[in-house]
Amino acid sequence: MKITVSKFFTLISLLIVLNACKEEAKPNIAEGSDKKIEIVEKPDLFYHYSIWHAFVNKIFEGDITAGELKTKGDIGLGSYNFLDGELIMLNGQLYQAKENGKVVKPSDDIKIAYANATFFDTDDTFNLQEVPDYETLRKYINEKLPTKNIFYAFKIHGEFSKMKCGGLHKQEKPFDKGLDYLIPNRPIFERENFTGTMVGFFCPEFIGDINASGYHLHFVSDDETFAGHVMEFEAKNLKVEIDQIHEYQFVLPQTEEYRNVGFEKEFQYKKQ
Fold it and tell me: Record's superkingdom (predicted)?
């Protein structure tokens, strides 16, 4: 078959275009000292397993594992099945704050009843020298937020002269007590003069029964021996990092208990 000059140049042009498209499809690569490093953007997504209204109505078992949750974010909070410990995730490491005050690193196959998570990507940061209480921290953060109509994640590291954290008592089936009873009667742990990190989220008021609105923070100490749900504190030299989140995903449990639950009880736990 003969190839005319015009067909030859058409073929060459097509190959050039295809090659250019191929070049544009390459991943974003950063040059390292001895190797190339692929840069992967973190998703701007708030991942939420189960819903607050189900958790309030005694859905204390889920079907997601700790290993699966690690694929949904690198910071997070929540609770393990049977309320067997507060869940804290910091920099991809999961912690389990037990009702007796012990902090452990759970295995990847442990199951989770409720969780919030995201891949943290700092959009804003500021420092606070003295913070006498939780309410003052909320006030400072409120002044920095461009709007309260989106979601936010936080990493807040500092020195704590006092910290009060709450847990939950482990439950056994049949579950006869809801959060309206369990939270006011929760175990409380206190510690003084140490360092650590608070992680958590802000949800707008319109979130309704899907999640708890307002601020929700959990804590883990730098020595990994003290953790739980943040109730109150005194701190200094806080570094506050904020991540704005514009997408929200919630995944519902695929369990018999969830399919059959009624949503009679209502309970919002905003401040603590």
Answer: Bacteria
- CA-to-CA separations, 211 to 25, 90, 117, 167, 171, in angstroms, rounded: 39, 20, 13, 19, 21
The residue type of 61 is E
How do residues 5-31 score in pLDDT, each as one tens digit?
444 344 444 443 334 433 333 344 444
Gap between the Cα atoms of 20 and 26, Å rounded: 10
Rounded to 10 degrees, the C-alpha dihedral 232/187/63/108 comes to 80
| pTM, rounded to two decimals | 0.83
Residue 48 CB: number of other CB atoms within 10 A?
26
Q: Helix H segments across the chain?
A: 5-24, 52-56, 66-69, 134-144, 179-182, 256-260
The whole-angstrom separation of Cα 218 and Cα 100 is 17
Q: Are 134 and 146 in contact (CB under 8 A)?
A: no
Cis amide linkage into residue 132, ω under 30° from 0: no
User: Angle CA(228)–CA(212)–CA(224) in degrees, nearest 5?
Assistant: 15
Question: Which helix H or strand E contains 175, and what residues bound it?
Answer: none
Cα(116)–Cα(113) distance, integer angstroms = 11
Burial bucket for residue 76 (CB in 10 Å: 0-12, 13-18, 19+): buried
Whether the pLDDT of residue 96 is over 50: the answer is yes
Mean pLDDT of 187-214: 96
**Domains (range + CATH), the chain:** 5-38 (no CATH), 45-260 (3.30.1330.80)
Among positive and negative, which fits the CA dihedral 14, 18, 24, 29?
A: negative
